């Protein structure tokens, strides 16, 4: 993993995490000396390769304490739904109680081309292993604030869903250990299969022991050059571990970020501590610019999604009136033409007899 030069030797991803949370610990004397060396070495760090990235925190798509941007007013950037509540140290999507459902949605559509979403979360409760549930989802979808059965949000969604599933519904499966993180891309034609824990439609996944931990837990969703990468920091070691890496993921711009959770007979506290979205500025070759044009429906290369049949919109009263009116005019016109032709044919027939 590439490490930026600096007194602490912190990798780029840790540097992002510390933005807005203080600076990482450094040795003052050595740090100042190295700073002078860097300043005197030239114009600074340049792009090392074609996919070198610069990152910028996008506050309109980010959320952190004291959660001032959450509310129902027109100036609010985030909206709560269901049983979600704002607390002093976190936003609780669902409490450790049965049959609860909550969500948190960004009100501003995201038009970034390349981005990274960092999620600081905590899942905890009284239930023992496999006696807790159900988990939470992170969304980048066309529709927002739509409750439903998929971790508290609608099924047949259009966009990306990342699921932190804490309860195994498929009793016969022995291949994976829960909690489990998976991802799914849908154009609206796919349904999430609860009975099989989403296995028929998942892009990939990994086991993630995220419950009842005494240290911070993080998840990162990175979308760069149509490559979807999901990484976790859940061991308290301040390092990312790969979970999902899928090329050829095509996501439209203008969708909404959100997160939701649901509990059933089993429950947990599902808390969101912060959501931080970074715009990534990535250099592209002319060939990549042609390949990475905007798309209008989500898709994944080498994965055929069923085509979506869009329902016909009901006609308005005016449109229906115009259709009936012009149909009658056309019918009368055709009748008149038919009468004229018939009369001429009769006249010609009489002349033959005389």
Automatic annotation (TrEMBL):
It is a single-pass type I membrane protein; Single-pass membrane protein. The lineage of its organism: Eukaryota, Metazoa, Chordata, Craniata, Vertebrata. It is found in: Endomembrane system; Golgi apparatus membrane. One of its GO terms (cellular component) is Golgi membrane. Pfam families: Lectin_leg-like. PANTHER family: VESICULAR MANNOSE-BINDING LECTIN, VIP36-LIKE PROTEIN. Keywords: Disulfide bond, Glycoprotein, Golgi apparatus, Lectin, Membrane, Metal-binding, Signal, Transmembrane, Transmembrane helix. This is Lectin, mannose binding 2 like.
């Amino acid at each position: 993993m590439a490490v930026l030069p600096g007194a602490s030797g912190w990798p780029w991803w840790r540097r992002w995490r510390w933005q807005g949370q203080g600076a990482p610990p450094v040795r003052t004397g050595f740090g100042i000396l190295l700073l002078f060396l860097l300043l005197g070495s030239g114009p600074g760090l340049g792009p090392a390769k074609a996919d070198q990235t610069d990152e910028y925190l996008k506050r309109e798509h980010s959320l952190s304490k004291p959660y001032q941007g959450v509310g129902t007013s027109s100036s609010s950037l985030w909206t709560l739904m269901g049983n979600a509540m704002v607390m002093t140290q976190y936003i609780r999507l669902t409490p450790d109680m049965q049959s609860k459902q909550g969500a948190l949605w960004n009100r501003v559509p995201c038009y970034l081309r390349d981005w990274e979403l960092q999620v600081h979360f905590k899942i905890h409760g009284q239930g023992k292993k496999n006696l807790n549930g159900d988990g939470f989802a992170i969304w980048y979808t066309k529709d927002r604030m739509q409750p439903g059965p998929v971790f508290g949000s609608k099924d047949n969604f259009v966009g990306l869903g990342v699921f932190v599933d804490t309860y195994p519904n498929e009793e016969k499966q022995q291949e994976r250990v829960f909690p489990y993180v998976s991802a799914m891309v849908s154009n609206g034609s796919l349904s999430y299969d609860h009975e099989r824990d989403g296995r028929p439609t998942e892009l990939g996944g990994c086991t993630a022991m995220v419950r009842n931990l005494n240290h911070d837990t993080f998840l990162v969703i990175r979308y760069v050059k149509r490559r979807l990468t999901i990484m976790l920091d859940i061991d308290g070691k301040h390092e990312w571990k790969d979970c999902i890496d899928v090329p050829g993921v095509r996501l439209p711009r203008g969708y909404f970020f959100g997160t939701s959770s649901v509990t059933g007979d089993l429950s947990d506290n599902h808390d969101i501590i912060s959501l931080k979205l970074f715009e990534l500025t990535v250099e592209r070759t002319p060939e990549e610019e042609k390949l990475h044009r905007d798309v209008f429906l989500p898709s994944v290369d080498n994965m055929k999604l069923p085509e979506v049949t869009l329902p016909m919109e009901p006609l308005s009263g005016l449109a229906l009136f115009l259709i009936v009116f012009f149909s009658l005019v056309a019918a009368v016109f055709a009748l008149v033409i038919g009468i004229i032709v018939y009369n001429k044919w009769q006249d010609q027939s009489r002349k033959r007899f005389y």
